[in-house]
Amino acid sequence: MVNTELLMDTIKNKNESVESVARRIGIDKSTLYRKIAKGGKSITLQEADAIKKDLSLDKETAEKIFFADELA
Asked: Which of 1, 19, 36, 71 has the smallest C-beta neighbourhood within 10 Å, fewest atoms?
């Protein structure tokens, strides 16, 4: 499961918005908001990779966000 709280904190800490990230990765802002609101369950691997690259996340941070349950 995606750690949506950490994802939102990371977006804010990088002075970004969900809207700007969504636009740059090529999905509608409402779609990304909906995916986050549903606990991130429907964020695809391709979207996770695009977000990782867009926010310049290191491997450790990306794993904490996108593979929270698998690492626990």
From this structure: 71
